[in-house]
Amino acid sequence: MIETLAISGYRSLRDVVVPLAPLTIVTGANGSGKSSLYRALRLLSDVAQGRVIASLAAEGGLSSTLWAGPEKFSRGMKRGDTPVQGTVRDGPVSLKLGFSSADYGYAIDLGLPIPSITRFAHDPEIKLEALWVGPMAGRSNLIAERRGDFVRLREADSGGWRDGARSIPAVDSMVTHCADSRDGLELLQLRERLRGWRFYDDLRTDRDAPARRPQVGTFTPVLSGDGGDVGAAIQTIFEIGEGEALADTIADAFDGATLQVGDRFEVEMRQHGLLRPLSVAELSDGTLRYILLAAALLSPRPPELMILNEPEASLHPDLLAPLARLIVKASARCQVIVVSHAAALVDTLDRNAEARSIRLYKELGETLVEDVERPRWVWPSR
Question: What is the pTM of this model?
Answer without folding.
Answer: 0.93
